[in-house]
Amino acid sequence: MAQRARIAAVLGPTNTGKTHYAIERMLAHRSGMIGLPLRLLAREVYDKVVAARGPSVAALVTGEERIVPPRAQYWICTVEAMPEGMGCDFVAIDEIQLCADPERGHVFTDRLLRMRGLNETLFLGSDTMRGPISQLVKGVEFMRRDRMSQLFYSGSRKISRMPPRSAIVGFSVDNVYAIAELLRRTKGGAAVVMGALSPRTRNAQVDLYQNGDVDYLVATDAIGMGLNLDVDHVAFSSLRKFDGRRMRELQPNELAQIAGRAGRGMRDGSFGTTGDAGQIDEEWVEAITSHRFTPLKKLNWRNSALKFGSPEALIDSLEQAPPDQNLVKAREADDLMSLKTLNSQAEVRARASDPASVKLLWDVCRIPDFRGISHNEHASMLQVIYQHLHERGSIPGDFMARQVKRIDRTDGDIDALSKRLAFIRTWTYVAQRKGWVDDESHWREATRAVEDALSDALHARLTQRFVDRRTSVLLRRLKQKEALLAEVNDNGEVTVEGEFVGRLEGFRFRQDAGATGQEAKTLKTASLQALAPHFHLRADRFYNAPDTEIDFTEQGGLMWGEQAVGKLVKGDDPLKPRVAVFVDDEAGPDVAQKVERRLQHFIDRKIAALFEPLLNLQNDEALTGLARGFGFRLIEAMGIIPRSQVADEVKQLDQDARGALRKHGVRFGQYTIFMPLLLKPAPTRLRLVLWSLSNDLDTFPEAPPPGLVTVPNMRDVPMVHYSLSGYRPAGERAIRIDMLERLADMLRSEDSRGGFEAKADMLSITGMTLEQFADLMEGLGYRAEKGERTKVRAADKVLTESSDPTGTPGEDEPVFDAAQEEEATPAAMADPAAEPAPADVVTGTESIDDEGVAPIAETPDATEVDNHIPEASETEVLPGESPDAALAGPEIEVFYTFTWGGNRNRGGRQGGRDGGAREGGREGGRQARGKGGPKGGGKPRGKGGPRSGGKGGPKGPKTFESRPEKKDRIDPDNPFAAALMGFNKDKS
User: Fold this and answer.
1) Looking at per-residue confidence, does 847 or 610 come out higher?
2) How do beta strands 563-573 and 640-642 pair?
3) What is the chain's Cα-based Rg?
4) DSSP string, 893-912
5) What are 789's strand-pairing partners?
6) Are the beta carbons of 108 and 96 closer than 8 angstroms?
7) Cα dist. 475→80, 233, 532, 825, 848 in Å?
8) How remote is the C-alpha of 11 from its chain's centroid?
């Protein structure tokens, strides 16, 4: 007696292992077939069977895919594609509760009523199907399976606060894309899973999620149909969906089907809402967590005993009422709507004139509307296909080629690729139908190749748009807790695991500015972890770097090449600044200390080298008394002091003190007391930085470009900035103080009362035009009177000069010996508080208060010289002159006559800018009178003015001779020199 076939219903909530149990039971039989609700799930089960038994015995049959080996034993199909009459030992239908689905329910109900295995039949689904199954299937055995883990409700939360390994469910393509875009910006990316995706695209997206490349999954309710994913939390972005006809509320059993994807195996899961979904009703939450739902009472049904006598007879049979009270007539499906539309066409009615033609028409109408454009367009395409099949029995190859070629393009965005995938699925379905194309294997391979190419392109676009590859790679490696590999190129660009993450500037990491949100946090975490060894290696290299690779900026920054590694900060001593390093905290204290020590060594050595004269002056223990005090004044001013600020201190210095200071390179100039070595560009830059630090400035003054004798005198720049830079403002420009002292030496020999003109040497050392020089002189306190005169030609000048033909100095001309330059005693100085260099003052003039008095020289009495050269006649052509010169008239030239104005600030702009450190100071025109000086309006002179011969000797030109130095020579700087010289002369 034959054993009765087993029929069982394995019912229970999600995550109970029902599908796994069905696979095991199928493989226990010689042959079997399992029907699944989605082709995605069918592909997943097929891969498991192939892994267990090999590809030679496993067949995959879906609407768009057909893999049938010759010796197929196990058939994995979508429910709609399950072949009938196979006689398999085992049959299983998964997600049997879809019998109540408005669109597809009638197909599942048909399999429930008519599909049986020879030895065993299993129905897998929800507990809600217990009643209908017991009433419609006789002799059924029920198996209850409990969930292996707990499911909890966690309420509503923002997407930005969604925990890792979460799935966010949307119910439209636009909603899914919007959520995925938001997750990319806030969480680094998300995988996208939808029922409309091809299996190849879906599997690639799932791999992104399962492999940990991304921690978030955005999907439609397709994930509720048995897809096994590593999900800990499911969040609903909406509690309403469009069911093909209208928007409606999701029922608790539908929510439970999707929420049940959270927590696989023995791991608990949670579910909740996000966005505008609001909260789930407490009663519904209780039903979902306890897996208790309202039992189903009615199943959708459509007649399977079809009549193909005519299209009308077929339509009538499809619309037949159900025979059982537990069944309800299914609503009009797409295939029935297409049949009615085509039957309204006269041509189609004419062709469908026999049962075979009607059956062919019905098979064509069952082609799914993958494109979803409109019912009329879908019906038009079906009419074309039916015409080809009815006329010649198959679809022409050239027609198929045109359709496939038009779709075979992988360019475009996500929407364009999705549409092409929907189009190719239609022709893939057609190619899978037996006998519909001439070369079935060719077109099946061709359409499959196009679908695979489009699937790969769509996956790439989805990943590019919704996944930050860089962040996903770094997240995966961080989770693996492995050492990350970082590389830093010569430009400082940092790559971690081959992904660009930012730049390393010195010892600070600057991550990619385009990263935001979670992506930025991930980049920083991964980058600093990977850069830890690089910080130490770079610190070692920096510590051993030569000083030539390090420099300071004019704003106090410290640079290593082109990278900022620190800055100078104020110290206890202006010449001993401290260092603040730019080192990330993550680099560690060891790196920071090493960088700080190296920078401190650099700046200390830099100050010691550039300010060596100043430091020697500071450390000279031999300096005592007033000299030491003045030395400290000079150190505080960093080597440059306007003489007017220390006029009283200078007067109090004796010649020994001055000599001791000169040994350290101090020059007592007429306008400035300074150390010439500190006027070089490098010490000037450093002086400005150190002074700015000691005065707590926010913005440091910049040093003038090196090599310039004069620079513009800008009104908004304080006077002290010019002094520290080594310049003195005068008129529209400021002149370098060493050049100013050279100019002052030249001016001492000029008659500042009677007036003098600028010499070529004066213009040469200042690099100015005559007009600019006149402005400079006015800034120094002189009056410049402009005049015009007939230009004296070179030939006239040569002929009128009174000189020795041999070129030697005349008897009355002064002879200046360079060897005696240090010993020469110049005339009274323009600034009584100033001193000419190299001899500071004329002997015996230290106590004269001569401020406001210009330097002058005694002028010899004018003598008339007869050169015995006849005057040229008005028409005479002189040598070197063209004959037309006389007719052209004399050439006019402009000249300036300079006389002392009595006020050094006259014409200048520095007054009041230095906060009390201004030059000049007393009213113009005031004349100092010394002993023997004029009491009335006579020519101003300094005490012990210039003399020729003995005391009270006759006036005349000065004569300088070169003679051997006496061993007992009296120091001309000695304040008693004049008295001693007069005493010795009277004694003789």
Assistant:
1) 610
2) unpaired
3) 53
4) EEEEEEEE-S-TTTT-S-TT
5) 893
6) yes
7) 41, 19, 18, 84, 84
8) 58
Q: CA 688 → CA 507, 693, 695, 704, 725, distances in Å?
A: 27, 9, 11, 11, 7
Max Cα distance, the chain (Å): 168
Q: Is the peptide bond before 55 cis (omega within 30 degrees of 0)?
A: no
Model confidence at 904: pLDDT above 80: no
Residue count of the chain: 988
Cα separation, 164 vs 169, in Å, equals 15
Q: Is the peptide bond before 69 cis (omega within 30 degrees of 0)?
A: no
- Strand partners for 583: 507
Angle CA(389)–CA(393)–CA(399) in degrees, nearest 5? 55
Residue 739: both structure tokens together: 């050049």
Number of H helices, E strands in the chain: 31, 34
Cα 913 from Cα 800, distance rounded (Å)? 50
> How many Cβ atoms sit within 10 Å of the Cβ of residue 188?
28
Contact criterion met (CB below 8 Å) for 7 and 1: no
pLDDT at 283 over 60: yes
Is there a contact between 677 and 726 (Cβ–Cβ < 8 Å)?
no
pLDDT digits (tens, 9 = 90+) for 235-254: 999 988 887 677 888 888 88
Residue with tokens 């990263």: 515
State the pairing for strand pair 32-36/90-93.
parallel
| Helix (H), strand (E), coil (C) string for 870-887 | CCCCCCCCCCCCCCCHHH
**Phi, psi at residue 345, to the nearest 5°?**
-90, 130
Per residue in 650-668, pLDDT tens?
999 999 999 999 999 999 9
Is the Cα dihedral 587, 591, 597, 603 positive or negative?
Answer: negative
Range 143-162 burial, b when 16+ CB lie within 10 A, else e? eebebbbebebeeebebeeb
Alpha helices in 833-884 (DSSP H): none
DSSP bridge partners of 910: none
Residue 985, both tokens: 């002369």
Q: Are 111 and 79 in contact (CB under 8 A)?
A: yes
CA-angle at 646, arms to 640 and 648, nearest 5°: 160
Q: How many CA atoms lie within 13 A of 401 on its CB side?
A: 6
DSSP lists the bridge partners of residue 231 as 262
DSSP type of residue 585: G
pTM tops 0.85: no
Spatial strand order of the sheet with 563-573 comes to 550-552, 557-560, 563-573, 576-581
Contact (CB, 8 A) for 632 and 689 = no
What backbone phi and psi angles, to 5 degrees, belong to 735?
-105, 145
Q: Which two tokens stand for residue 758?
A: 């600028």
Q: Which of 504, 545, 543 is nearest to 527 (CA)?
A: 504
* Helix H or strand E encompassing 290: helix 282-290
- Name the residue among 604, 664, 673, 663 with its Cα closest to residue 634: 673
CA dihedral of 424, 430, 433, 435, whole degrees rounded to 10: -130
- Tell me the β-bridge partners of 122: 8, 92
Residue range 336-394, pLDDT digits in tens: 999 999 999 999 999 999 999 999 999 999 999 888 878 889 999 999 999 999 998 99
Separation of CA 521 from chain center? 15
Q: The tokens of 490 are what?
A: 């010569």
35 neighbors 79 (Cβ within 8 angstroms): yes
Q: Which residues pair with 124 in a beta bridge?
A: 10
Rounded Cα distance, 635 and 605, in Å: 18
CA dihedral 417, 419, 422, 424 (to 10 degrees): -60
Which residue in this structure is represented by tokens 């000299």?
Answer: 627
Measure the CA–CA gap between 906 and 899, rounded to whole angstroms: 13
Neighbours of 852 (CB within 10 A): 25
695, amino acid identity: N
